TrEMBL record:
Annotated localization: Nucleus
Function: Sequence-specific transcription factor which is part of a developmental regulatory system that provides cells with specific positional identities on the anterior-posterior axis.
Residue intervals of the PBC domain: 37-231
Region (Disordered): 1-40
Protein name (Swiss-Prot/TrEMBL): Pre-B-cell leukemia transcription factor 1
Residue ranges of the annotated DNA-binding region, renumbered to this chain: 232-294
Organism: Sander lucioperca
Amino acid sequence: MDEQTRLMHSHTGVGMAGHPGLPQHMQEGTGGTDGDGRKQDIGDILQQIMTITDQSLDEAQARKHALNCHRMKPALFNVLCEIKEKTVLSIRGAQEEEPPDPQLMRLDNMLLAEGVSGPEKGGGSAAAAAAAAASGGVGADNSAEHSDYRAKLTQIRQIYHTELEKYEQACNEFTTHVMNLLREQSRTRPISPKEIERMVNIIHRKFSSIQMQLKQSTCEAVMILRSRFLDARRKRRNFNKQATEILNEYFYSHLSNPYPSEEAKEELAKKCAITVAQVSNWFGNKRIRYKKNIGKFQEEANMYAARTAVNAANASSHGSQANSPSTPNSAAPCLYLCLLSFCLHLN
DNA sequence: GTACATGATTACGC
DNA sequence: GCGTAATCATGTAC
């Protein structure tokens, strides 16, 4: 016997013995051969059901028990089940075949792509790689930012899974509770397994809507994290002092032609732990700003020229020639001539 | 909060 | 593609 049949017929064969709370004709019945008597039986039962709420609790309990034990009860119960099957299910049947929510699918896809849901893949390494490509560099700062990004994404992932687990646990507990309640009630009123199943679906849908909110919030958090990470202007950091020194040294020691070759740019980038593109940006900005306000940079130019001269003197006194962008072979060029040359070059 | 410094971006010319 | 000039957006010192 399947579950539905078992539930629907759970009262079949339950004692037909009489009960003091029922009228005599209900206790004895009509022997099942008298059609009018049966109709009257059913009429009486329905009448009692209709008036049961007007009675005291004890009376109602006694009457309910009597009704459950009545010989006509299983038949009436089955009829009610059939009616419910034909009406309720046919009405609601169409509503259950809902297509998957496109918004939920989008959220799921995004969480999967970002590595928040699905199998662990290094805290969204794909996104981090994309971010790295967008930022155009792999310097030390970038590595730090990547690990920061991954750490934050992992944090989001953990929170998401913890909350999801809580929701699923709550959903399961509530579903079990409702199912037990319905099974218990199915003894006294017609509740088919399909109805229980439908109720479970309703509960799941309710919890799904909560889950969707969680997914939406998670997606928003990831989007904010990504936008902050990917927005190069937002994450602009000043170069460290050493890097600026190296770049300035090269600039002022090559003031007559402050255009580093590709090789020189690469070497400077390596020394400063920045990208070649950043070196190019720096020289572009430096050239234009120097040209715009030579007077303002005069002191700085003198300082670096003096430093270069000292470096060159030291190098020659040690019998060796430095050969790097920061200490060019040209030794200490005459600052005035350099300035003049640079201005002529720019003009 | 403001002014200035600075790295990045964009439009343009070559 | 590179450099220039203007501009944006953020960092920093006060």
